[in-house]
From TrEMBL:
Name of the protein in its database record: GH11824p
Residue ranges, compositional bias (Basic and acidic residues): 401-410
Classification via Pfam families: DUF525
InterPro entries associated with the record: ApaG_domain, ApaG_sf, Hemimethylated_DNA-bd_dom
Length: 410
């Protein structure tokens, strides 16, 4: 007997509970506990250890949304928890009772089972004269620029691991209001002569292999997204029964440098795991200077049983020139999200620019636990590396219909 997948949406009177729950039942009808609107999505299929193909429908294991895979990426995952597996339990020893310590050990095992790392990253470089500045575009306030001759906190050379598969995916627009992740997180620089500096492609995401829950559907258009029919076509004899069109291949080739993901960074503090994925966006040149742009996607995930709330962010941004800037502010992207056992994750994107071709970022999030305990959760250090900028301006599929201007002040 196959598994029937249904989508369950919480009552809109509870805005903090907006989410998509997966209800599975094996041939026996069960009475819904809450008054809900139920809609059949499809039938779960066996998860695969190897790579999923373009056109595979899936449910996101963490955020619950419906999606379809466009194409896979191979990323290097730098996981500091795997490098120092005793770190997670050690950080909570002073504040946790024996029961909490046991929970911490369980969370540590969960992290070990679900994460991986990868080869050596570039080390930070420093210079004597600070000739460039850096900024985070969603910063509410900055404490200024400080010249430091070293970046001792950034030492990715110690982290080792292996390669992992991620996927570029389309998100079903019907689920966007119910997920705690930005649905316009994929951005790129527009034409140099355009007044619009940043463009966003709505409804795109990057998903790790272990977060994919594949399912099948008999519908010819099971996903609602304006790019679905332009990128994919129904092929009932294929597996999966949706194949990429020439427009998808052309779009991927033209935009590959700005969509490409290569590094993923992870670190856990007090049962809160931070995942960072940086992307190089390109260089803007003026007669006076060159400005290099990156975007970065950050996921916060609560692995414990007590709710926590993000209160503040504290960034350090190091430029190749030797400049180190400190940025502080309330929350992220104008929010102070709560990470509870029921809604454990929050994901957002932001941007940073340097007047140098490379640099590093790291920092902390100030979190407050429901029992009143506050702590700094480490943001793993990650490199900002540029690429040759001779590949031309990225070309979206249909700019007038699918691209939006993104306010880089967040």
């Amino acid at each position: 007997m196959s598994l029937l997948v249904q989508v369950f949406k919480w009552d809109q009177r509870c805005p903090m509970l907006h989410r998509v729950d997966i209800l599975l039942r094996r041939g026996v009808k069960k009475q819904a506990v809450y008054p809900t609107k139920l809609a059949e999505v499809g039938r779960l299929v066996d998860a695969r250890d190897d790579r999923y193909e373009t056109g595979q429908l899936f449910l996101h294991r963490i955020f619950g949304y419906r999606g379809v895979i466009l194409f896979p990426w191979t990323a290097r995952v730098y996981d500091r928890d795997l490098h120092n597996p005793g770190k997670i339990s050690a950080t909570t020893t002073t504040s946790a009772n024996p029961t909490q310590q046991n929970r911490t050990k369980e969370a540590s095992l969960r992290v070990k089972a679900n994460t991986s790392a990868s080869p050596t990253a570039a080390t930070a470089q420093s210079a004597d004269a600070p000739t460039s500045t850096a900024f985070e575009t969603n910063a509410a306030e900055s404490t200024g620029t400080t010249n430091l001759g070293t970046t001792s906190q950034v030492d990715p050379k110690e982290v080792k691991g292996k390669v992992q598969t991620f996927y570029q995916v389309l998100i079903d627009t019907r689920d966007c209001p119910y997920i705690r992740a930005q649905t316009e997180a994929v951005t790129f620089l527009g034409n140099q002569d355009s007044n619009r500096s940043l463009y966003a492609i709505p409804g795109l995401d990057y998903v790790a292999h272990e977060d994919i829950m594949p399912y099948s559907s008999s519908e010819k258009s099971p996903l609602q997204h304006e790019l679905f029919d332009k990128f994919l076509t129904h092929a009932p004899d294929a597996d999966p029964p949706f194949v990429g069109q020439d427009t998808l291949k052309a779009w991927q080739e033209k935009n590959h440098p700005w969509l490409d993901m290569s590094d993923v960074h992870k670190e856990t503090t007090e049962n809160v795991r931070i995942t960072v994925i940086p992307f190089y966006m390109g260089c803007r040149e003026t007669p006076a200077s060159s400005v290099y742009w990156w975007r970065y996607c950050i996921r916060l995930e609560n692995l414990g049983e007590l709710s926590v709330q993000l209160r503040e962010r504290h960034w350090r941004i190091f430029s190749l020139s030797g400049t180190l800037e400190t940025v502080r502010g309330r929350g992220v992207v104008g929010q102070e999200p709560i990470l509870s056992p029921r809604l454990p994750a929050f994901q957002y994107s932001s941007h940073v620019s340097l007047q140098a071709p490379s640099g590093h970022m790291w920092g902390t999030f100030r979190l407050e636990r429901e029992d009143g305990y506050s702590f700094d959760c480490k943001i793993p250090p990650f490199s900002l590396e540029s690429k040759p900028d001779d590949l031309g301006t990225p070309t979206p599929a249909t700019p007038s219909a699918h691209d939006k201007k993104r306010d880089d002040s967040d």
